[in-house]
Sequence to fold (186 residues):
Amino acid sequence: MGRMRGYQSLGVRSNIAKSISIVLILGAFGFVGFVIFFYVAPVESLTVWEPEQPIPYSHKLHAGDLEINCQYCHSYARRSEMAGIPSLAKCMNCHDNLSVETEPIKILRKHFEDRTPIEWVRIYDLPDHVWFSHKRHLAKDVSCQKCHGPVETLEVNARLITHHMGFCLNCHQANNAPTDCLTCHQ
Fold:
């Protein structure tokens, strides 16, 4: 190593030090690349999530063809934060009077008679740090389709829209709704 103005140069002294230096430099570049990739990566899911449910249920038939209002089945939506899943009794209000006896209706009837809940797979779920009220949005005449997409066209329910912060903020800004943090984060 040469001397520069009385100081020994900071050059690498051994092959091990050279290898460690290369690994650290590559690691730093890799980390920066990782951060940049996830910063610019798309927020939206590239696929629609369509989980298998314990009983096949067609929103297309019920909400689309038969034009049953979303709030008939999801009656908690206008009264609380959660829209809720319809009770078996709500389903049986109609299905008790129908002469149609398909396999899904037989399963529904069996659950009702045995008083066992149906373990539906939840489609939409916000993080715990986000507060959302269906009641407030319905009071402002926000349609279900605005946040859930055209559910009335689906044979199998699916998550059509990913609810990230930008989605909500864009809607709030477009409709002059509050955008301060405590509106959604409590």
In short: Strands lie at 3-4, 7-8. The chain has two domains: 3-40, 59-183. The radius of gyration is 28 Å. The helical segments are 15-40, 59-65, 70-73, 88-95, 103-114, 134-139, 144-148, 165-174.
